[in-house]
Prior knowledge:
The structure is a single chain. The protein is mainly alpha-helical. It is built from 7 helices and 3 strands. It has a 3-stranded antiparallel β-sheet with strand order 1-3-2. The longest helix has 23 residues, at 18-40. The radius of gyration is 18 Å and the shape is elongated.
Amino acid sequence: MSDYGDPDRTPDRLRDRPSWLLGRAASRSHALLREGFAEHGGGLRGYHYRLLAALDQWGPASQAELGRDTGIDRSDVTAALSELEALGLVEREVDPAHRRRKIVSMTAAGTERLERLDSVLDGIQESLLAPLTPAQRRQLLPILERLAHR
């Protein structure tokens, strides 16, 4: 599962380094996400979830805005939106004010699928955090937010 090999074979110089441990945790998290969406995502992946979540939270947006908001490359946004549109989860319409720009909105089916994917993601989070006590979980999020947003 890990991109970092056998944890028992980690060189001592790396074993206790926060950057190494965060990398291992991120690798485990990405693997759990890939596996969880592959098994329970109905053909959708994490980047589809990000796009649907952004549309749900902020409403209709241009493809460029969605790319910026989700950290997904513009060409990948276009391909992912084509997949979501083919499934009837989003709609794209030409922006009347800027004819070259398309505005994306989520359909009712997209909202329903996002809610099902929320449950998939909840299960993935539970698997990731399983080794922690409830108190440790409450402490972890603010620490990670501080490291991520510094």
